[in-house]
Write a structure and sequence with these properties.
Elements lengths: L22 E4 L4 E3 L5 E4 L6 E3 L7 E4 L7 E3 L6 E3 L3 E7 L6 E3 L9 E4 L4 E3 L4 E6 L3 E3 L6 E4 L6 E3 L6 E3 L6 E3 L6 E3 L6 E3 L6 E3 L6 E3 L6 E3 L6 E3 L6 E3 L6 E3 L6 E3 L4 E5 L6 E4 L5 E4 L7 E4 L10 E4 L3 E6 L2 E6 L11 E2 L1
Parallel strand pairs: 1-3, 2-4, 3-5, 4-6, 5-7, 6-8, 7-9, 8-12, 9-13, 10-14, 13-15, 14-16, 15-17, 16-18, 17-19, 18-20, 19-21, 20-22, 21-23, 22-24, 23-25, 24-26, 25-27, 26-28, 27-29, 28-30, 29-33, 30-34
Antiparallel strand pairs: 10-11, 11-12, 31-32, 32-33
């Protein structure tokens, strides 16, 4: 193991350790560079120049506090906290790199736009960046996080967050708070948390998952998987051939166009259809559930019922609703609302 001691105040310094095991490097002035191994590099209150490992290993940066810092990740999957201060610059380099703003001053609003390459954390500071893919948002303030054409990963915090993936196949996690989470083009994974969230898919084949709150989950134009959790969720299939799963609460599942598969889950659920709902299959309908028909039929006399070996088929106009494993004797007028 190699160490160095001494006073370097007022000087530019470069320290290199070339050792096999990972290490932590700290500097008392302005310039430091990591090499082989998984590096952890800390700045100070001056204007730091911090360089990661050019050999492809992970480097963790923490540029604290106040100075206008310049940070280069080079190769490896780097995690970079730009620190406080105005005018920081970050270049993640190659591989998959993450901006880490989890510990921004509590109450400050964090705004990050991946397309513009800008981060504004209020009084905590500002940063411009390139070659960054992922973001840990603030835990203790509201986040406004906007993606780009890359495959981004975003993490919210305890407050009410607004996160939009834009293009690319993104992963978005709301954590706590009443969040608004939206995908974009690409096959996205979007997951709420403990608040009452609005989670919206878009044009890809997306996975949309609620959390512990009473969430609104919307599909888009692709083949989506949309899943509620323990709350009273409202789930909309919209366009495409979707799978809707209510979870454990008393949920409302609204079919869209295309061929949809619906599972209400535990407790009494409501399945909603209209004249544009196309072909639908309900896998777990029971006597406590309701079918609501908003348009295309005004009463039971407008519905055609057919028992089959696999279940009960209900038709009106061009719409088909199939109740798996049931026959006409298993339902009555109390299961329908018009």
């Amino acid at each position: 193991m190699a160490t160095t001691t001494g006073s370097y105040e007022g000087q530019t310094m470069s320290i290199t350790w070339d050792i096999i095991s990972p290490y932590t490097a700290t500097a008392t002035d302005e310039l430091i560079q990591g090499y082989g191994g998984a590096d952890t590099i800390y700045g100070n209150a001056l204007d730091n120049y911090l360089f990661g490992d050019q050999r492809g290993d992970r480097s963790d940066f923490d540029a604290t506090p106040d100075g206008a810092d310049i940070l280069y990740g080079f190769g490896g999957d780097d995690v970079i906290d730009p620190g406080s201060g105005v005018g920081n610059y970050v270049n993640g380099g190659d591989d998959i790199d993450t901006l880490d703003y989890r510990y921004v001053t509590p109450g400050q609003t964090l705004i990050i736009d991946m397309e513009l390459g800008t981060a504004d954390a209020g009084t905590y500071g500002t940063t411009s960046f390139v070659n960054m893919e992922n973001v840990f948002g603030s835990l203790y303030g509201p986040n406004f996080l906007y993606g780009d054409a890359n495959d981004n990963v975003f993490y919210g915090g305890y407050y009410n967050d607004d996160i939009k993936g834009r293009d690319g196949s993104d992963s978005i996690y709301g954590y706590a708070g009443d969040d608004e989470l939206r995908g974009g083009a690409g096959n996205d994974h979007i997951q709420g948390g403990r608040g009452h969230d609005l989670v919206v898919s878009s044009r890809g084949a997306d996975t949309v998952i609620g959390g512990q709150g009473h969430d609104t989950l919307e599909g888009g134009r692709g083949r989506d998987w949309i899943e509620g959790s323990s709350g009273r969720d409202t789930i909309l299939g919209e366009q495409g051939n979707d799978t809707l799963n209510g979870g454990n609460g008393r949920d409302v599942l609204i079919a869209g166009s295309g061929t949809d598969r619906l599972m209400g889950g535990a407790k009494a659920d409501r399945f909603v259809f209209d004249r544009n709902s196309d072909t639908n299959k309900i896998f777990d309908f029971d006597s406590s559930d309701l079918i609501k028909i908003k348009s295309g039929a005004n009463g039971l006399s407008d519905l055609d019922f057919t028992d089959t070996s696999a279940g009960l088929r209900i038709e009106f106009g061009n719409v088909e609703i199939f109740l798996k494993g049931l026959d006409l004797s298993d339902i009555d007028a109390g299961n329908f609302v018009f």
